[in-house]
Amino acid sequence: LNTVAEQSLCYGPGLLEEQQADQPTRFRIQARNQLGENRKSGRDEWSVQVQRREVNADGKEVLREVPADLVDFDNGQYEVRYTAEVGEVNIKVQLIEDGHRRHIRGSPFRPTFISHGKNRANEYLGPLVNSWTVTTLRQLEDFYRATEAGQSTKLKEGDVKSLIKVMNHIKDMYSQEGDLLRKQDEVYEALSHIEREGVPVDKQLKVLRRVGSNLVQLKDECQKTEKSIEPLVKQESEIYKKKIAEFEQKLRAYQGGLKREAYYFYNSGVELAFKHLNDVTDTLNTRTSELEDLLHIARNFDYPDELSNSQKVVLQMREDVANARSLWDHEVQRIMLTERFLVLKWGDVQPSDMEDDIKAHFKKLKEFCKIDKKSDVYIGMNDIIKRWTVFCPLVADLRDPSMRPRHWSMLMGLCGKSVQVTDDILLRDMWNMELHKFPTEVEDIAEQAKQEAKMEATISKLSRIWSGVEFVFEPHKGTSVMLMSLKEEDIETLEENQVQVQNMFASRFLAAFEDEVIGWQKTLANIYETTTLLAEVQRTWDFLENL
Predict the structure, then answer these.
(1) Cis preceding-peptide flag for 108 (omega within 30 of 0)
(2) Rounded Cα–Cα distance for residues 99 and 403 (Å)
(3) What is d(CA 73, CA 88) in angstroms, rounded to the nearest whole number?
(4) Are 306 and 291 in contact (CB under 8 A)?
(5) pLDDT tens digits along 320-360
(6) In Å, what is the CA distance from 351 to each residue of 282, 318, 444, 494?
(7) From CA 438, how far away is CA 423, in angstroms rounded?
């Protein structure tokens, strides 16, 4: 029978940890046939790849080839020899058949090398092989004792945890059977090699035979136990299917009630909202723990998909709570931002900067795409920030220097509040006037102040101009008779000022300066009539003088 990779094995110091670096080491390949018998001849085609793990200049882990020699003893055994530096080595041993590569049992191997290894660490008769043999036999014995005790546990009806432990011990026996046999074979071949070197190993071989016999008996016992617990497994499986269905119903009922939680209502406030968020999170942690317990049971009864809906519900609830918490965190930031504004003195307020910050905050609120925009909490937060987006431009209008006490009085009357406006009042006083409720009216008052300021400036300009205007006197045709008139530029100014006064009459904000505007209308008209009449009289006199 030909060599079979799934039956063949490796052993020796070259496969172990903490070998001496920079010194030759080796290990054997023992070829076996389909029946698990050692082959007696060689000439098999093997691929042996020895690579050292290194970190390159970019910080990435790479594998560097390590030279290795393969010696065929032509008796079914092969020896691999190589020398490695300090670090971890990766060894792949594959049998090549008809161009196909198949890993030998245990491959790939990961031996390690240190700078100060034990004396003779890289030899078959050295301390590493001896320690590995003792450790492996102990591991086999420990597995036997733990599994034998576990699978023979006396079970009580309803004790599903103990039942699952028994089931898992049985599964371990089946799932690890191949590794258990491989370890026994590796120890046996290593001990046989040591014995051929002239070292007695009768005691170790006796332990190995006992362990092997115990494991064979253990498998038989596991098969019997598995059959005996079948009715109990079926019974508990059906019970927990019902419990899983009930758990899902309970989760969905709880999920439905979360929409009535305080954190979905804006008037709850930050403190109560976070308290309920924390309470719900604690409850979800408890439900998650229950879910994990049920999932552990479901996996062992081979129906983990029965809990897929419950997992989705818990995940959705956690996501909803996380989104709500983020929304309230955003509200905390909004409160901190607006409180910082509200404590500013009226004379220190920078409306444009304040408006930019509010708009940025509003933009972030709109980005909460996973929150129901129709929920009370979102509507509440949206409304309050909208008030600020209205309030900020109104503040800019009211900060205009054109505002006079009469305008503030109009504003107080509009809002039904009484505030003595000075540069030292706080912005909070303005916020408390609830200007956002009357944006159009407030804008009208501010616009009136600006327009009246323009009128006031025009009237002041008129007073300044005409207080300095004087008639000029020029001699008439070289005589001592003096003619009186206005300068040409003063006449142009007069015409321009009359147009300005007439325009003020067209303004809907005339009332505050009506008497003054009428007075200037009359004054300018009188000046115009006087200068016109004077000019006419002087022209007539000039004409009559020639007669």
Answers:
(1) yes
(2) 96
(3) 28
(4) no
(5) 999 999 999 999 999 999 999 999 999 999 999 999 999 99
(6) 44, 40, 18, 41
(7) 23
